[in-house]
Amino acid sequence: MFSGIVEEMATVVDIKRYQGNIDFTLTCSFARELGIDQSIAHNGVCLTVVKLDGDSYVVTAMKETLDRSNLGLLEVGDRVNVERSMMMNGRLDGHIVQGHVDMKARCTDMRDADGSTYFTFRYDADKELARRGYFTVDKGSVTVNGVSLTVCGPTDDTFTVAIIPYTRQNTNFKDIRPGSVVNIEFDILGKYIARLQHFA
């Protein structure tokens, strides 16, 4: 379980592909504090640490994860938003994030807002996905590349988020431009409500 509050950006230093899976080697400031089997969100995707080596660590992404997320697009040198799992005695500063990315979205627009930046994203949407809770609501929560954000101006297949300068500087939102592919996780509370309505 995560909160969507990114700790820092890790850097991809090696990529190994095999049998449909990918091993990513990354470096970050807290690598030496990690343990094998620990869960870390990478651009919002929960992955397990499988190897440690000094200031670097290795995680494996399987085919299902690669199909649903932007991790398969990563290259050596790319920056990835990382967050360690939430401590149960800590504050929930963002919202409840599972680390189970639902799908990819593409940035369609970015515009200045007096120092902050509005980003608009489009995703594949249909009525069946909406019935399962794959949608956004105005002032609701959404996770984009692991960042907990508030939705504004949603449509059936788009939503906009406002990024303050601090968030843009300290996450890989600094690298996002129109055309960039991001990971999105819809609010788990909305999914449960949609599921309950299905049986009502």
TrEMBL record:
Which reaction is catalysed here?
Answer: 2 6,7-dimethyl-8-(1-D-ribityl)lumazine + H(+) = 5-amino-6-(D-ribitylamino)uracil + riboflavin
Q: Where are the transmembrane segments?
A: none
Pathway membership of this protein?
A: Cofactor biosynthesis; riboflavin biosynthesis; riboflavin from 2-hydroxy-3-oxobutyl phosphate and 5-amino-6-(D-ribitylamino)uracil: step 2/2
One of its GO biological process terms is: riboflavin biosynthetic process
Report the SUPFAM superfamilies cross-referenced here.
Answer: Riboflavin synthase domain-like (SSF63380)
Q: What is the E.C. number? A: 2.5.1.9
User: Where are the annotated Lumazine-binding repeats, by residue?
Assistant: 1-95, 96-197
Keywords, comma-separated and alphabetical: Repeat, Riboflavin biosynthesis, Transferase
EC primary class: transferase
Instruction: Provide the Lumazine-binding domain boundaries.
Output: 1-95, 96-197
Example GO molecular function = riboflavin synthase activity
Which InterPro entries does this chain map to? ATP_synth_asu-like_sf, Lumazine-bd, Lumazine-bd_dom, Riboflavin_synthase-like_b-brl
Record-linked Gene3D superfamilies: 2.40.30.20
Q: Which PROSITE patterns would you find in this protein's record?
A: LUMAZINE_BIND (PS51177)
Sum up the protein's function in the record's words.
Catalyzes the dismutation of two molecules of 6,7-dimethyl-8-ribityllumazine, resulting in the formation of riboflavin and 5-amino-6-(D-ribitylamino)uracil.
Q: What is this protein called?
A: Riboflavin synthase
Native species: Segatella buccae ATCC 33574
Q: What is the lineage of its organism?
A: Bacteria, Pseudomonadati, Bacteroidota, Bacteroidia, Bacteroidales
